[in-house]
Write a structure and sequence with these properties.
It is built from one helix and no strands. With 54 residues, the protein is mainly α.
Length: 54
């Protein structure tokens, strides 16, 4: 009986844990890309303005 309970708990926790891990990793990647984009965008904007004016 305890074995069945352990298997059930394991079967519930593992997929949920994996989904949470995948979600955190993907969210981290998206956040990193977005953050990098936000820090690069003003620099690109200044470069474009300099080229346009130059």
């Amino acid at each position: 009986m305890e074995l069945l309970l352990a298997i059930t708990v394991f079967a519930v926790i593992v997929p949920v844990g994996l989904m949470a891990l995948v979600f955190r990793i993907s969210a981290g990647i998206v956040g990193w890309v977005f953050g990098a984009g936000c820090s690069v965008a003003p620099v690109l904007l200044v470069l474009v303005q300099c080229l346009a004016l130059g």
